[in-house]
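WARN retry 2 of 3 for item q-0093 after timeout on previous attempt; input resubmitted unchanged.
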Amino acid sequence: MKEKGWADRVVIYISDEPHDDPDMVAQMKAVCDMIHEVDPAIRIYVSTWWYRPEFEGYVNVWGVSHRGGGWGHPVPAEHLATIRRNGGDVYFTTDGMQCTDTPYLGFERTLPWFCFTYEASEYEFWASNWHTLNPYVYGWHRFHRQSPSAGVWYWMRYPNGDGNMIYPGPPIGVDGLVSSVRVKQAREGVEDHAFLTILQRLIDEKRAEGVDTSGAEAVLERARTLVNIPCADGRFTTDYTPEPSLLMEIRHDVAVAIESLRGAR
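OK item q-0093 returned
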């Protein structure tokens, strides 16, 4: 990775939802120590779901909930700031939040807005093509058994559409993968993030040059306040995006502010 110049672009994902089992915590710390013995600069990612002080010094990249809580633990914005202040990166993890029955598909679209507002480096979808039934026949998942720890089993059914945004082509005669409106919404959200990032950079540059940036700052602040932590779960994004046109309205205003600042002297 270093020879190719990729070392700073990758993470080692060693554990998904380790929770607070003492044996699991001890084992995970030992694995982190082994990895950092090879190179302390290697970034280790763990989907912890909430801030776990016992992992400080072991985990570099924290996968936490964007909705203000995970697995019964609060995840306030202050904890995200603590992770960054201690030198870690924040990713938003999304298990169980992707839903085909989300009004306006607001979850996929607004995740990058959460990343921008709360300075998360990335977000991750746990899966994009996990199908337990033929998705062209059934709009839901089958029940399956899963285990959180040794000797403990229970039945679980994931939300409709969770873990599948890309569909198989062969069942409908397509040679390849089939996209979805949710994939397109996810892409639009990433483009929204690019607009917001460009505007933030221009505000910083122009303010340093003595240019009045108050109008652009007001536009950016409106974008930041579109989403908040804590927030509703994946199926209830209408709580903070009641009108899908609102996102496009803000994006248009951001684009206008970008063009205005680019020509400002």
